[in-house]
Amino acid sequence: MTMPNDIKVIDLMLSVPGEDNSQWYEFMKPLLMDEESRNMFKMPAQYMFKDIPESGKKEDYIAYTIEQMDKHNIERAMLGIDDHNEIAKEALARHPDRFFASLEVNPNNGMDEVRKIVRLHKDYGIKAITGFASGLCPQVPYNDKKWYPIYAKCVELDIPFCPCVGVPGPRLPMAPQKVELLDEVCWFFPELKVVMRHGAEPWEKLAWKLMLKYPNLYYMTSAFAPKHYPEEIVKFANSRGADKVMYAGYFPMGLSLDRIFKDMPNVPFKDEVWPKFLRENARKVFKLD
Predict the structure, then answer these.
(1) Which residues, 6+ apart, have CB-to-CB distance to 173 below 8 Å?
(2) What is the pTM of this model?
(3) Is there a contact between 171 and 33 (Cβ–Cβ < 8 Å)?
(4) Which of 9, 131, 193, 235 could disulfide-link 160, Cβ–Cβ 3.0 to 4.6 Å?
(5) For each of the chain's 289 residues, which pLDDT tens digit applies?
(6) Torsion angle defined by CA atoms of residues 276, 277, 283 and 284, in that order, rounded to the nearest 10 degrees
(7) What burial class does residue 271 get, using C-beta atoms within 10 Å of its C-beta: 0-12 exposed, 13-18 middle, 19+ buried?
(8) For residue 218, what are the β-bridge partners?
(9) Nearest 5 degrees, angle CA 72-CA 76-CA 82?
């Protein structure tokens, strides 16, 4: 059950830091009602993270990110990309062997968002669509009809959809992210690969039950230090869910890679689960060959 040290890791949630990362959270400010979230936090879920990484001023933030990845044997990482995210586009151009792209979407934009998916898939080869239902303004639950054109396009392009599920860290209403909403999505779109993000708490038992039910539903460990991986998810990976659970970090949004990989060897995965968790499941589901 010891973590192997010779596996080239695939990280499904990583970003290139900058001197000031506060702009990452501007999109949700209209939804933040309390003064602490609006004005005092470096990031809206700061109360949950004791030591948010401070990269400091770097001459080359992309090179710094590669150094951090190499330090922990991370071969490839998924970066969020968008039209305005110049550093992510530069990272993809400079290191196409190390980074691959995802796109976070807003279903409130209707067919314009579908056309954007097609364009960025053509230009940058995006490997996944991500969703943050509670962070949208207005919010859109995952079983809402506004998402359906996006789900259909994901099926057509054969790329996964990665929704944040469970109680959101920022002080936002949780209803749009209840795990039970994915039951309808997975039922109606059996060809859509859905990879849950951000824990699914406090419904992690429902999360593994739905993964058992639907062959197209998966889970990644984003935004959780390994010492806090939900016990139900670890147990599921060690039993019938070895092909369903995969690693994702949270650097530099809330966790350093040093913190993540300091904790990681203490996760009680079975020997045969580690290669799947750290690499193989992501390689297959996101078609990274």
Answers:
(1) 134, 139
(2) 0.93
(3) yes
(4) 193
(5) 789 999 999 999 999 998 555 565 677 778 787 887 777 666 666 655 566 667 778 899 999 999 999 999 999 999 999 999 999 999 999 999 999 999 999 999 999 999 999 999 999 999 999 999 999 999 999 999 999 999 999 999 999 999 999 999 888 999 999 999 999 999 999 999 999 999 999 999 999 999 999 999 999 999 999 999 999 999 999 999 999 999 999 999 989 999 999 999 999 999 999 999 999 999 999 999 8
(6) 60
(7) exposed
(8) 195
(9) 125
Scan for tokens 């290669």, then name that residue.
Answer: 275
According to DSSP, residue 57 is labeled -
DSSP-assigned letter for residue 121: H
Cα gap 266→153, rounded to integer Å = 39
Q: HEC string of 198-233?
A: CCCCCCHHHHHHHHHHCCCEEEECCCCCHHHCCHHH
C-alpha 38/C-alpha 61 separation (Å) is: 27
